[in-house]
# Entry
Amino acid sequence: MSPPIANLSAFLSELKRRRVFRVAVVYAGVAFIIIQIIDGAFDYLPIPDWVGTAIIVVLLVGFPIAVGLAWAFDITEKGVVRTAAKEEAVEAKTPPRPFIGNKTLAIVAAVAVAVAVWSWWGRPSTAGSITSIAVLPMENLMNDPDQEYFVDGMHEALISELGKISALRVISRTSAMHYKDTDKLLPEIASELGVDAIVEGSVLRAGDQVRITAQLVGTAPERHLWTDSYTHDLRDILTLHSEVARAIAKEIKVTLTPEEEARLASTQPVDPEAYMTYLMGRYHYNTWLEEGLEKGLNYFQQAIDIDSSYAPAYAGVADCYSLLSLFTFLSPMEAAPRAKEAAMKAIELDESLAEAHAALGVNKLLFDWDWQGAEQEFKRALDLNPHSDNTLKHYSFYLIVMGRYDEGIAATRRMIALDPLTLTSHIHLGFSYFKSRRYDESIIQLNKTLEMEPNLHYAHMQLAWNYAMKGMATEALVASKNALALVPITDDQYLLGTLGWVAGVAGHREEALEFLERLKELSTQKWVDPAYIALIYLGMGDKDHSFQWLSKAREDRSPTMVYLKVDPFWDDLRDDPRFQDLLRRMNFPE
# Structure
């Protein structure tokens, strides 16, 4: 035997004599058991991932230490003794019995196998099966009610980031907000929202430092999947949102397209003061009330004054002006140009901003009547954020306007899947059925919505439309009175105009005239959509006055006119050449 081989053989023999191999095997077996326990049991416990990582590092570092101690010492019945040299061992008459014998090895092996089977068999269903999540309202760790707008902003931003992932259905902010301060258990919430997992979190802000702690909980069965904390300066707040979203996507093993990877990784610094002001604007905008929209507009403009390159603030300005006009708080001639300018500026600053494309799409749809351009913007917005319930709502409007009813209803159903608890989403489905002339389905849907909340005056109003179209005058008038009983004094032009039409169609001319006079009186105080006046005249059978006011509505760029081509309200005018002329002037496709 050559000297190197002889030396190696002697060394291996010495390792065996000193029981180093036994110690290594037992150590590896025990380490395996511990790692399996960490991997399995920790899923059910709210323990940060770093704890398990630290234990694994300690086990790895301990391995060479254990092997070294095995070389130098023996654990025997007499305790720990230094291992005798080879010559001494030969002379020893009765070698000490080793502490680690064959029985010990067998026990460790059996336990390791048992733990491995338990870990595999009892492991929760793989996180890769998670395809839908809800982000619950985040906890305000500042204990300051004045910071709620900031916490809500962090919540909305995280939902928006996750919404960029096409393979993951993310529940909208409006439905998630139903669980603010709730006592419901997570499995119950998941069942109501129809999701596979829940994200919980908290926000702490100290000066310009922001920390978000988030945890992902599987709900079928309930198990803890992941938790971590992220801290960044306000200037890098977009990076913070992106990191949390990417961590969640990685944990649930959702597939990202290369474009989605790039969008989530692409962030830029923001001016902290502009960002905080923007969040305040978004907080007020989300009320959808006139006062809230005006306050939101003011804060968005302040954010622009602080940082003229901050694209989301321009998108916020566009959103406010569009809604102020759509809700008839401002005339389209005043609001539309400002909305368009702001939306285009936002896209110029950040072409990847989904909200900006959606805002421009709304402008092209409601005011420019640029049908092809509107669809392009909506599709671009949905490419950038496939799970924006707001964009889906606008796009479904567009599809209905174009007479693509099945597509519009499908888009509305997708919106409800993202926003299942917001009642206006369910009303919108009834609205889509009505515009599609599926009156019975609309009635069924609206009654289901009223079972959820009986005091929705818009649901009663739309029931009145459907009954009137079906020639059920008595039922139409009852539904109309139910709607008005919920808002006895109203300046809601939408309600006055459409219920005035119902009264006229039902033969209640005096009542229709009362609605008409109320609208004309309102017109002395603010802009009134001429299309609603035209609608009441049509309900009473006065086509000439109806065309007169429709012509004015076209001149005023009334957003109500977008439905002219398909709306059942105008069916009695469709054979009139004047109606066909209106359609041509609005550039409707043939």
Q: What stands out?
A: Confidence is low (pLDDT under 50) at residues 88-94, 122-128.
